[in-house]
Design goal:
- With 550 residues, the protein is α/β, with parallel strands linked by helices.
- The chain has 20 helices and 24 strands.
- The strands form 4 sheets. Strands 8-15-16-18-19-20-21 form a 7-stranded parallel sheet. It has a 6-stranded mixed sheet with strand order 3-2-7-22-23-24, covered by helices on one side. A 6-stranded mixed sheet has the order 9-10-11-12-14-13.
- α3 crosses α8 and α8 packs across α9.
- The radius of gyration is 24 Å and the shape is globular.
């Protein structure tokens, strides 16, 4: 075909009738070439046109569906750049401890669950945070063990980096005063050396390994429940931080069956057997009709700040003998990075403390010298506490800081106690990082935080919680603009996942993933943003969530 013939064929395709036209809307495209529009058209699951109602109506045919939004707001499908889908699915089916205001309330919720449990059944829960209690010390198991003596109990802290278990669980795992702390973890102990029931980081696995694994049927149910919950909050995509081979197999089964209503950028777990299997298989990019991407690896360099496991260069201000935990050796980080660079995989490393962030940057730099790659897009997940001299290194090394706005507004009340005032100025340093030229994909780390992506959107440009505290924002010099906050949940996650040509903006040729909101999050007063409700969530031109009209 001649060049002119090809051009005419493309133009003819562009003018074919659309499957759907969206009219009379306030469309924030996240595309700098057409930032705001009033209409768009969808054909074959992708955007065919974005612009005026006149243009969209030109693509109406006899079978075209019209969606008149009466002035409502549309944004690209929101993407959570750091989440745990199976963790959410499990959380939806376990004791919800988020928001508990005392240890007594935690115990009461567990006791209520035990009433319907089988004899000897493990009771799982998640979401407690002793920083929200009047007594902010770690709890001890005795009160829980008295209330629930016969069922083993395993309650994960809100950050996932500590757990509280009862005496029955300790007994089944054979944990006693003589049990040594595992590498990269510790048992909190009383003055006589006995375990208190709190397990930090690597110690969780000592008890966790005796908990019966979920069945394949249970994993399917958890996955479907989590996807539905994500869709309800306007999410059309996530970056799934650390999934094992069995979880991925469940995802693929559901995607093959057409039951996977989410675009999942999966980070595989970094144990050798999983790495061997997936590197041998090779990168999986947009398989199952664009539902799964499997081309990145998740490592964990340290613990969490709330449980004092984040690795710091200097001791915790409220625990002077403690500098946190390194959970993966520098040598391991470099070796995985080198292997990934050679295989064309991305590496994403959890690092919260300033010592962990510096270590990861050092190991990335060493790996890049050994295997130079121009567009690796390696990431540090969380990047919460940074020394000022390390901030420019992200841009210098082309490393992406993947951060979670809701962590800042959840943690700000107690961070100065952990770090002191001076170090707190390097905490959640969004503006300082953006000023170096990097992007920051935003997320929630759900189920650590609530699923609603607008919480992190709001946190990015206000540095305030849902009650508008503190006035002016916490370290307000680190705020983003509202436009940057929108990019952080749309375009920037797409870039961080090598998906910017497929998603992230409402642009002709990209997936027709979009969300309809009941108010304009780009113009309403900041204190009104979190009152926004999702009206529709649309994936590939198909509605996957519709709110019930009041």
């Amino acid at each position: 075909m001649s060049g002119m013939g090809m051009l005419l064929a493309v133009l003819a395709l562009q003018q074919q009738p659309a499957d759907l036209v969206v009219l009379n809307a306030r469309v924030y495209t996240a595309d700098v070439n057409r930032p705001v529009a009033e209409a768009f058209a969808v054909r074959g699951g992708r955007i065919a046109f974005v612009g005026s109602s006149r243009g969209a109506l030109a693509l109406v045919g006899p079978r075209t569906e019209r969606l008149d939004l009466a002035g409502r707001t549309v944004i690209p499908g929101m993407v959570d750049a750091h989440a745990h889908l199976l963790g959410l699915g499990q959380a939806l089916r376990t004791v919800n401890l988020v928001g508990t205001r005392s240890y007594d309330e935690v115990i009461a919720r567990v006791v209520e669950r035990v009433k319907t449990a089988r004899p000897g059944e493990w009771i799982r829960g998640r979401g407690w945070d002793q920083n929200d209690w009047a007594d902010t010390r770690f709890p001890t198991h005795q009160a829980l063990s008295r209330a629930v003596p016969n069922n083993p109990v395993y309650l994960t802290r809100v950050d996932g980096h500590a757990a509280l278990v009862n005496a029955k669980a300790l007994e089944l795992a054979h944990v006693t005063a003589a049990t040594p702390d595992p590498t990269g973890g510790r048992f909190i102990r009383d003055s006589t050396g006995n375990p208190t029931g709190v397990l930090v980081d690597g110690a969780q696995g000592v008890v966790g390994r005796v908990i019966p694994a979920a069945s394949r049927v249970e994993l399917r149910e958890q996955t479907l429940a989590a996807i539905a919950e994500a869709n309800r909050w306007g999410l059309t995509g996530i970056h799934d931080a650390g999934v094992d081979a069995e979880g991925i197999a469940v995802y693929e089964d559901l995607a093959r069956e057409g039951k996977y209503d989410l675009r999942n950028y999966v980070m595989i777990r970094s144990d050798d057997s999983t790495l061997d299997a997936f590197m041998k298989r090779g990168r999986q990019i947009g398989v199952y009709d664009g539902r799964l991407w499997i081309r990145s690896i998740k490592l964990v360099a340290d613990g969490a700040l709330g449980s004092r496991g984040a690795a710091l260069l200097e001791p915790y201000s409220d625990d002077p003998g403690n500098t946190g935990l390194i959970t993966t050796t520098p040598e391991r980080i470099k070796s995985v990075a080198v292997r990934a660079l050679r295989a064309g995989f991305q590496v994403n490393v959890h690092a919260i403390g300033d010592r962990a962030n510096r270590m990861v940057l050092d190991q990335f730099e060493a790996a890049f010298k050994e295997v130079p790659v121009a567009d690796h897009r390696f990431r540090i997940e969380h990047a919460q506490i940074l020394r000022y001299q390390d901030i420019p290194r992200f841009a210098e090394l082309d490393v992406i800081p993947s951060m979670q706005g809701s962590h800042q507004t959840s943690d700000m009340y107690w961070v100065p106690n952990r770090l002191g005032w001076a170090r707190s100025q390097g905490a959640y340093a969004w503006r300082s990082l953006l000023n170096t030229g990097v992007v920051i994909p935003n997320g929630s780390d759900f189920p650590v935080e609530a699923v609603n992506p607008l919480i992190s959107f709001h946190s990015f440009f206000t540095r305030q919680d849902a009650d508008n505290f503190p006035p002016g924002g916490w370290f307000p010099e680190q705020r983003t603009t509202r436009q940057e906050a929108l990019w952080s949940i749309t375009l920037w996650p797409a870039y961080a996942a090598f998906m910017e040509n497929e998603s992230g903006t409402l642009t002709a040729g990209k997936y027709a993933d979009f969300v309809v909101l009941d108010q304009d999050i780009m113009t309403v007063a900041p204190e009104e943003v979190l009152k926004t409700n999702v009206v529709l969530t649309v994936l590939g031109g198909r509605v996957v969530y519709r709110s019930n009209p009041k």
